[in-house]
Amino acid sequence: MRLGFDVGGTKTDAVAVAPGGEILARLRRPTAWGPEGVIATVLGLAAELAAAVGIRVDEFDSVGIGMPGQVAPGGAVVTHAVNLGVDELDLARALGIVLGIPVRAENDVKAAAVGAYALHGRAHGTRLGGLSASGAMAYLNLGTGVAAGFVRDGILWRGVHGTAGEVGHISVDPHGPLCKCGQRGCIEAFCGGGAIAERWGRPSALPVLDVFDAADRGDPEALVLRTGLAHGVASAVRVIVLSADVDAVILGGGVTALGDRMLSLVKGDLAASAAASPFMRSLRLADRVELLPPGSPAAAVGAALVGASATEQEAVAHG
Amino acid sequence: MRLGFDVGGTKTDAVAVAPGGEILARLRRPTAWGPEGVIATVLGLAAELAAAVGIRVDEFDSVGIGMPGQVAPGGAVVTHAVNLGVDELDLARALGIVLGIPVRAENDVKAAAVGAYALHGRAHGTRLGGLSASGAMAYLNLGTGVAAGFVRDGILWRGVHGTAGEVGHISVDPHGPLCKCGQRGCIEAFCGGGAIAERWGRPSALPVLDVFDAADRGDPEALVLRTGLAHGVASAVRVIVLSADVDAVILGGGVTALGDRMLSLVKGDLAASAAASPFMRSLRLADRVELLPPGSPAAAVGAALVGASATEQEAVAHG
């Protein structure tokens, strides 16, 4: 049995996962601030999950922790997790001795990609916990920033320097909006939640929702932003499928809270490129896009799978 | 020992490759037209190569054939090879009985990617014939059209439908030139040899060279085309590295005949995005780009490797 955590800026999602892939227990708690806060949050939830499934914490096989920051491949050191007040944190050192089990960390988007593949890849010829199944999928995270994770034949592709999936900073318009990265027309400048909030510029708790509602009322500025958002997401889907030819692009992250109101516009943009181009039409991009179900534990489940060693991952895949 | 063929629109490049990866013999002959012409060209070269290395044709282990067309994964049926006058051709049926050895076909760009990895991946921590070496590389073909092949840990990634690497039809400018595919601002519309020849519109045997020379003389139209070409290639490099995080992007194909005159402009465009963006700067894209050496037998060698069965590929990698 394994523990998986998705440590977010406000909440932490935690699961206990059986060898066969089923979620035996799931809990969500607020994330406490800073390195000590993150550690306390994880330790508290680990104890609660152990109690919930009726074993001791050190009887879990492993723990995996997804966090919004940079993680060296195969390690447990998280850096630049600014939303959590964490500059650098060695989770193996901080948690390994206390928990008594192996600790792995992973960038939260990459963890979500692994979990989305395991949980939702079934519709694409894969199976639950299907780490050895054939096929390829991308998870596109539309949060404050925009990034993707690629899973192929059950294996996460991190890239040679760990920067695979940084599609948010591909420019798709040399005259497009200025991105905070410094380039113009980045995909993230069109459809990142942070960029939209900044361009909208009006105080709001839910700026993307406000933009959609204002666009419905005919606000010209909101219409430009909403059309750009759909174009940015559709462009990311085109980049992902034309380069990697994945079966499915699963959309998740805060911006997808708008659900079908957003997805229908994205599919509309994809339909426009398909209408212009027989080649694009042949790729059936709109059929490959779907939303991560609301409340999906993908990131926590993916973290639990990442937490397992390569040998243990094999065991799950064949278990 | 294996045979590998790169059947091009005008010439066919053929090699005999030893189990360890060395090229034992290489020959180039004009390609004859149509299905019968292709078969006759391959059979003639197979006999010549057998004589050159001193064995019978049926003593080769396998034959792999790269062609500019669509090839179903793991098969030998080539379709839509319009430059060769081939609508559909089952190479296993046409050649297998005559040659008496297993036949595989592959799209020529994908074959070149496999060969470029085997021949030129060494500089990136891989080794000759390094099919089991760790690392990832892309080959970007700048011919009449533009497409890429991805090789990762020695394995070609074809995608779930065989369309991985179709980066030529990613739009990077909604107001860019019209692509023959129907979209605007496709990478191929900027840097494909066919698109440049058409936009230049003046009769020429070497339109890309003419554009570069005219741009050197200050011709305003040529300057626009040349700047666009560099932008298109650099955009493809950005798409490839930001999505797949490969070690190296090796540029090949007819448009690269201009060598450093082209590469320096591509690196200039990459330097401009690096200057604008600390994130892009951190990726060191210009350092990852290189030219396939002129006259490289990458496509024929890659075809020979594709021709081997999976088991034989393993043997090469460890041989």
From TrEMBL, chains A, B:
It comes from the Bacteria. Belongs to the ROK (NagC/XylR) family. PANTHER family: N-ACETYLMANNOSAMINE KINASE (PTHR18964:SF169), ROK (REPRESSOR, ORF, KINASE) FAMILY (PTHR18964). This is ROK family protein. It comes from Microbacterium flavum.
